[in-house]
Amino acid sequence: MMETPGLSENRKDVNRLVALPFRKSVQMAYQSIRVRFFRSMVTTMSLVLAVAFLAFIQVGNDIAQGLLSSGNPDFIQALAKAGFDISPENTAVTSSAKQRWIVFLSLLVCVVGIINAQLMSVTERFREIGTLKCLGALDRFIVRIFLLEATMQGLAGAFAGSLLGAVTALLTSLARFGFSLGSHIPWSQIGITLFFTLCIGTFLSLLGVLYPAMLASRMRPVEAMRVEQ
Amino acid sequence: MTESKKIVRVSEVTKNFDLGKIVVKVLKGIDLEIETGKYVSIMGPSGSGKSTLFNMIGGLDKPTAGKVFIDEVDIAQLDAYELAWLRCRKIGYIFQTFNLIPVMTALENITLPMTFAGVSGDDATERGMALLNQVGLTGRHGHRPSELSGGQQQRVAVARALANTPAIILADEPTGNLDLTTGEDIINLLKELSVERGVTVISATHDYKMLNVSDQVIWIRDGRIDKIQAREELEIRTGGLESAGA
Questions:
Q1: Does residue A14 sit at the B interface (CB-CB below 8 Å)?
Q2: A131 vs B69, B101, B118: nearest CB
Q3: Nearest by CB to A17, which of B55, B85, B172?
Q4: Domain B6-97+157-245 top-level CATH class
Q5: What pLDDT, on the 0 to 100 scale, is given for residue A177?
Q6: What pTM was computed for the model?
Q7: Which long-range contacts (CB under 8 A, 24 or more apart) does A185-189 make?
Q8: How far is A127 from chain B (nearest CA, A)?
């Protein structure tokens, strides 16, 4: 038949011919977040809160560690009064099992929240996704756009959350131990902690979008034709 | 071989939808050929299988049995990449609900398929602006779909469908969400473009305004082709169009 040579000729080129440059997909993801700002904010909110909680606990511990290693008996007494588990032989403040458990639960709830919000967003955008496919988008373009959106939301949300948590932890420590703790705050350790919470937040955002993005990418282009809402 | 080129060939296509306990036979054996450059309307009541046939021609759905050839390529043989390429380069889609990407401007909507096709940014912008002029939307390139009327949105959609100079434009009820005059404008625009660029326009519709510009009308009834009428036959029957739909 006539079609066979033409087809096999195309076969090699096709991969190259349908393309979405990375810059363009970043731009599309950014645009989508910007235009649907309120929607994105709601999606990101649970992440902000969970990361803020994580940062609050971690930075609080950092500060407590700073005070403990200062060796000042007043501080150590204040720490013990504030509920930190300090015995004379302890030289390190670590998060208690209960703290870890609560933080873990809050992060879990946050991921479930993100999955829920992203599934909604995929449902809302089924027509858009179907149209993109009719225009020639491959499954992985769709996945990429969703992942990029989630990365941006994750970075922004985790940044805001880390900041919020750290500031709250600093303020409560100030209220608890007075201004004299100023020189004992371990800034570099807090910096490392905040970087860590930023990564965790972004990772959680990506984790939450994986399943919705896969669902979106498998949507059939014929969905775009559907007329009923 | 025939002298005029067949852009779409549908041979003995059947389509069943398996709904678990019952199998609904939507298409019961369709044979069809569509010539390059023609303006073809697929007419039929809802539930006749019109949309299913239409989706099949557009490579959006695969037949249960039989073959659909687009430009002499059997679409059932294509993998996901080749289908995407086909949708991107060979076919332009126009939808009843316009389906512009809401977060993008008119120009970005038009240049998106060009981006997929690998056209560079500047070329795409230039061609996009030319297309906007052609559909009569000069100066509206920076507007989002929500800032455009229904008719204007459909014009953008027409321009987007033309972005990669496709061989076929598939229009699914392009006037379904538009008022009478706006719908007529869109039909005329499609006809104009079809003549000017030699694009084959295939539209599924039950809008009788469409008949005036169609070179060929395919009537579908109950999963089969009821009749295929050429334009001349239609004109003889002028005044009898209402009865044709009854």
A1: yes
A2: B101
A3: B85
A4: alpha beta
A5: 83
A6: 0.86
A7: A185/A63, A185/A66, A186/A62, A186/A63, A186/A65, A186/A66, A189/A62, A189/A65, A189/A66
A8: 7
